[in-house]
């Protein structure tokens, strides 16, 4: 069997176009969704992320507010900025780019963001709301995975799902979303015994570990849908390339469908950040978020 390739890049482009349409409809009601991105320090990778977020936000017709703070900023000054953004009605979403410099406590900083504007979905209030089935802001990467899965499979009800990885930003919210979609969910991690046997149960296998190629063909049930969240930089023959947590060539011979790296989950993350900003703007104005974009 050769797996179908799940085109995350194409799906994300379509999602951004739908978001732009919804943003235009909101603008006709006098509401312009606004996203504030805060970057502390000059980490080159973070600067690229922040620049790309700003470009895509503006392309969707939203307002983009960028706050670039020096690396030696005191935590109190960042908290004061967050308080101003919380109070600003033109700002519907606030994202503080991680990692933060060592003088700052990331949990305290994230905890200072108004949960209704927490478009990264990292605030404990949003984690709790997701866990108990209340409307929540959901972390962008697992939200993107869920959209790809629903697009591919339709109803996920009753399917066996295995999530490898239990981080707060990917693994745990992914498991909550799959549970809410009526899957039977197993979360595996570094202490799990016989990972291969656990993975082979999966109709849906999500790998979010950060270990290049660790999911091999013998760990995959024939016909399974495999979502590769991993982004790993590996150097071969002097060239750096991006690979996922899944051995793509081998697993594609067994799986029913698979996301590539790059071009799979990655492009969904910023598109879902825009979806979350739109959701926050709708909710702030007493409107329901667009169908299929929010939980
Ligand atoms: P993380 O916080 O480092 O968590 C990794 C998880 O993998 C942990 O729960 C860890 O288990 C588990 N793990 C480690 N070794 C394992 C093993 N041998 N067997 C089973 N589980 C193992 O990473 P993360 O932030 O969730 O990110 C995971 C990957 O996704 C990374 O490659 C990251 O770059 C990528 N990522 C991609 C996007 C995107 O936009 N596509 C977004 C976010 C992250 P323990 O809890 O037991 O330590």
Which features does this protein show?
295 residues, alpha/beta, Rossmann fold, 2 domains, 3-stranded parallel β-sheet, 10 helices, 11 strands, 40% helix, globular, binds NADP nicotinamide-adenine-dinucleotide phosphate
Provide a descriptive summary of the structure in words.
This protein has 295 residues and is an alpha/beta fold. The protein has two domains: 29-115, 3-Layer(aba) Sandwich (Rossmann fold), CATH 3.40.50; 140-267, 3-Layer(aba) Sandwich (Rossmann fold), CATH 3.40.50. It contains ten helices and eleven strands. It has helices at 8-28, 44-59, 75-87, 106-111, 124-132, 140-153, 171-180, 195-200, 248-251, 266-284; strands spanning 4-5, 34-40, 63-69, 93-96, 160-164, 184-188, 204-207, 225-228, 232-236, 239-243, 257-258. A six-stranded parallel sheet has the order 1-11-8-7-5-6. A three-stranded parallel sheet has the order 3-2-4, with helices on both faces. A two-stranded antiparallel sheet has the order 9-10. β2, α2 and β3 form a beta-alpha-beta unit. α1 runs parallel beside α10. The chain starts with a strand and ends in an 11-residue tail after the last helix. The model has no long low-confidence stretch (mean pLDDT 97). It binds NADP nicotinamide-adenine-dinucleotide phosphate. NADP nicotinamide-adenine-dinucleotide phosphate (NAP) binds next to α10.
Number of helices: 10
Instruction: List the bound ligands.
Output: NADP nicotinamide-adenine-dinucleotide phosphate
**Unreliable segments of 5+ consecutive residues:** none
CATH fold annotation of the largest domain? Rossmann fold
Largest sheet: 6 strands, parallel
Q: Between the first and last Cα atoms, what is the distance in angstroms?
A: 34 Å
Highest-level CATH class of the largest domain: Alpha Beta
- Spatial strand sequence of the major β-sheet: 1-11-8-7-5-6
**Helix-residue proportion:** 40-55%
Total separate domains: 2
* Helix/strand class: alpha/beta
Order of helices and strands: EHEHEHEHHHEHEHEEEEHEH
Count of distinct strands:
11
User: Which strand-content bin applies to the residues?
Assistant: 15-25%
Shape: globular
Average pLDDT, rounded to a whole number, is: 97
CATH second-level architecture of the largest domain: 3-Layer(aba) Sandwich
CATH superfamily of the largest domain: NAD(P)-binding Rossmann-like Domain
